[in-house]
Write a structure and sequence with these properties.
Length: 160
């Protein structure tokens, strides 16, 4: 929640995702929770559309005062597009949560983080980018007086 106010004030950098103890401790579960909160903040920053459709004045007049709007097709259509659907925040009723194993948000976030750590396969960098990184490294080593290493015959030099 402390990130929402600076974001609304126009800050373009909010740090600290996953951090505890002034950044001395990092927690992957907290990182995934904070990432979800950041997505919700970005949703808020996009603004609330105010137009003929979202105001729904005609529908309100048709349904009338003190009636329910949940069953209206307009409400259903807009509810699906103007609401966030977080992955980690659990909106179950307590009884359903109890039956489903009582996992906390941190439990779910930790499982998600562990899955990513176990299964993520990064896309390899294009060869042109790898060569640029090599060139920068070699130039820096030369400027610093680090002896240049020559790759052994038949062996390819690593990317970085």
């Amino acid at each position: 929640m402390t990130a929402l106010l600076p974001a609304l004030a126009g800050a373009n950098l909010i740090y600290g995702l996953g951090m505890f103890e002034s950044g001395c401790t990092m927690d992957y579960g907290q990182l995934f929770m904070d990432n979800e909160f950041a997505e919700m903040i970005k949703y808020v920053l996009r603004g609330v559309p105010v137009n003929e459709d979202t105001l729904a004045v005609d529908m309100i007049a048709e349904v009338g005062q003190f009636k329910e709007f949940v069953s209206q097709p307009h409400t259903l259509a807009n509810m699906r597009t103007h609401q966030t659907y977080p992955k980690l925040i659990d909106r179950l009723m307590r009884e359903d949560w109890d039956r489903s194993g009582q996992k906390t948000i941190h439990d779910r976030a930790w499982e998600e983080a562990t899955d990513v750590l176990d299964t993520y396969q990064p896309e390899p960098l294009p060869e042109s980018v790898r060569q640029t990184i090599r060139d920068i490294r070699l130039e820096t080593e030369k400027e610093m007086g680090i002896p240049q290493k020559t790759p052994a015959a038949g062996k390819r030099e690593s990317a970085a």
